Amino acid sequence: MRLYPVLLVLAGLAAHLNGLDGDFLLDDRRWIAGNPHIRSLSDVRAVLSPPKASTVGGRPVVSLTLAVDYARGRLDVRT
Questions:
Q1: Residue ranges of the chain with pLDDT lower than 50?
Q2: Contact present, 39 and 19 (Cβ < 8 Å)
Q3: Which residues, including other chains, have CB under 8 Å from residue 33's CB and lie 6 or more apart?
Q4: Which residue, among 45, 73, 48, has the nearest Cα to 58 in the 3D structure?
Q5: Exposure of 55 in the CB half-sphere (CA atoms within 13 A)
Q6: How many other C-beta atoms can be found within 10 angstroms of the C-beta atom of residue 64?
Q7: How far apart are CA 38 and CA 1, in angstroms?
Q8: Ramachandran region of residue 24, left (φ > 0), alpha (ψ -120 to 50) or beta?
Q9: Please, how many CA atoms are within 13 Å of residue 12, restricted to the half-sphere of its CB?
Q10: Which residues contact 74 (CB under 8 A, 6 or more apart)?
Q11: Looking at the whole model, is its pTM more than 0.85?
Q12: N or C, which end of the chain has less CB nearby within 10 Å?
């Protein structure tokens, strides 16, 4: 019984790690690579309230998550 959670986590990691060798897909270029609103965490209010017309407009948690990921590794998906 205790083995099931471990197997579930390992399966999730295996599925996720497989995608780290890939390139940006579909809307990733627009949401991440071409999004100037996630480039800096120095103004958290700006990150949490991007313009409505932007790709993360009205989605403060998505914007913050992308900004933190960008701060950690820029456009390198492996970090």
A1: none
A2: no
A3: 24, 75
A4: 48
A5: 17
A6: 17
A7: 42
A8: beta
A9: 6
A10: none
A11: no
A12: N
Give kind and range of the element (H or E) at residue 5. Answer: helix 3-18
* Beta carbons of 38 and 56 less than 8 angstroms apart: yes
- DSSP secondary structure letters along 10-74: HHHHHHHHHGGGS---TTHIIIIIT-GGGS-SS-HHHHHS--TTSTTTT-HHHHHHHHHHHHHHT
Each residue's pLDDT tens digit, 17-39: 777 677 777 766 777 777 788 88
Instruction: Find tokens 């403060």 and name the residue.
Output: 60
Residue linked to tokens 């627009």: 30
